[in-house]
Amino acid sequence: MTSWTIANVRPWGAAPVDLTIDGTEITGVRPAGTARPDGESVDGRGLLALPGFVNAHAHVDKSWWGQPWVSYGGEPTTQGRIAHERAERDRYGIPGVDGTVAVLREYLRHGTTATRTHVDVDLGLGLRGIEVVREAADRLDGAIDVEIVAFPQDGVIRRPGVLDLLDRAAQAGATSIGGLDPAGIDRDPVAQLDGLFEIAERRGVGLDIHLHDGGELGAFQYELIIDRTLRAGLQGRVTVSHGFALGELAPDRQRALLDDLGEAGISWATVAPVRTAPLPWRGMAERGIGLGLGTDGIRDLWSPFGDGDLLRIALGFARLHGLRTDEELTAAVELATTKAAPFVHRERHDLVPGARADLVLIDAQNVPDALVRVPPRALVVAGGRVVARDGEVLLNA
Fold first, then answer.
1. Which of 194, 281, 341, 394 has a C-alpha 20 to 30 A away from that of 313?
2. Residue 395: CB partners within 8 Å, gap ≥ 6?
3. What are the residue boundaries of the Amidohydrolase domain, all occurrences included (predicted)?
4. DSSP 323-392
5. DSSP string of 36-74?
6. What pLDDT sits at residue 179?
7. pLDDT of 293-317, one tens digit each?
8. pLDDT band at 396 (very low <50, low <70, confident <90, very high)
9. In which order are the strands placed within the sheet that holds 17-22?
10. What span, in angstroms and rounded, lies between the C-alpha atoms of 305 and 254?
């Protein structure tokens, strides 16, 4: 299809409209029945329409999705999971193109049309994982927009040579480079952050730092990241992933950090895991601190859980944070859609003219109803193409 119309849909539960799509872009939004399509018209049946979901924190290179069941093993700590993965990944063909394609297809089936994915870069793999993810995305012919963060899963400073790999990944087109628990894993937060920020500043890429350390140890590292962000002029280009400590701090300490994070333009990505402290999401929004939702790993050597459904992640966020009102429940879905645009370098991501034609149709009364029931996706459009219908992906790969 080049120019076509998806008729009679309700964007965000509002009055029915006809959406005109030309190539990969939404070009018109008119009251239902008033559009005069030049090409084909698809009946949206009055269904709820949402923008495609944006997965702001993923690990698509790690999954054993589609393979025989893999039982959980190893020690249940960050260091234990790293060691177990390194010991076992080759046995399960991780990273592998077929497994990555399988995960990306699950994303599309559930309506995710863009993802920011961390891809392991270490001394055993080199940059092979990045090559795998790119090949997998190519197999799906660009249906899902994939941005890559080169991720040092096994540490940075404690593994001499990893900084060089991250630098090479930045040269090879990774949009961001990652870090991992500068204190808890490397035991040298100053050295890790100095090395990462030097590459980011020199290569013009973003930074996305996994930070699991809690309490004051986590807060101390936020202060280091804020300081370096301001000194390097990288406002708006640094993300903290997980960042559990932010929800654990005393209110006054938390507010002061939020002020500084807002000044530095540092964003946050969370997977809203159970048994973690709720984030001060309202205070973050007030200060313009970007907050994105992600699936993290899916059926990998870290955890057997996950199915790629970002709407279910938004529901988990709503439950963890005690959201109840229609406004709050809608805000959780916005975090998984429009508000996540900066995580994949989009100026806009919504059902409006000029936006990429990514949308999801759901049989639901309104946005809160869709969130709490997590119904199947009736139709998924990605980049102007129908890629999934009634839970079935229509692409060959």
1. 394
2. 105, 108, 140, 141, 143, 387
3. 103-387
4. --SHHHHHHHHHHTTGGGGGGGT-S--SSSTTSB--EEEE--SSHHHHHHH-PPEEEEEETTEEEEETTE
5. --SS-EEEEEEEEEEEPEEEEEE-TTS--TTSSP----S
6. 98
7. 999 999 999 999 999 999 999 999 9
8. confident
9. 25-31, 17-22, 3-11, 41-51, 359-362, 377-382, 385-389, 392-393
10. 31
Mean pLDDT for the stretch of residues 46-56: 98
- Tokens for 319, please give them: 């439950």
Host H or E run for residue 170: helix 162-171
H/E run at residue 78? helix 78-88
Q: From CA 300, how far away is CA 295, in angstroms rounded?
A: 12
> Does 38 score more than 80 pLDDT?
no
Quote the radius of gyration of the chain (alpha carbons, Å). 21
User: Of 15, 3, 4, nearest to 46 (Cα)?
Assistant: 15
199: helix, coil or strand? helix
Mean pLDDT of 34-48: 85
Sequential DSSP letters for 97-148 = HHHHHHHHHHHHHTTEEEEEEEEE-BTTTBTHHHHHHHHHHHHTTTSSEEEE
* pTM (predicted TM-score): 0.96
Q: The tokens of 32 are what?
A: 């239902």
Instruction: Tell me the C-alpha distance between 65 and 212, whole Å.
Output: 25
In order of their start, the domains of the chain are 3-51+351-393 (2.30.40.10), 53-344 (3.20.20.140)
pLDDT band at 39 (very low <50, low <70, confident <90, very high): confident
Residue 20 near residue 3 (C-beta atoms within 8 A): yes
Q: Give the number of residues written for the chain.
A: 397
- Position 369, amino acid: D
Give 154-200 pLDDT, tens digit per residue. 999 999 999 999 999 999 999 999 999 999 999 999 999 999 999 99
Reply yes or no: is the peptide bond before residue 95 cis, omega within 30 of 0. Answer: yes
CA distance 320 to 109: 25
pLDDT of amino acid 174: 97
Here the tokens at position 24 are: 């990969």
Percent of the chain with pLDDT over 90: 95
Mean pLDDT of 91-118: 96
Both tokens of residue 55? 């997965």
Question: CA 230 to CA 208: how far, in whole Å?
Answer: 15
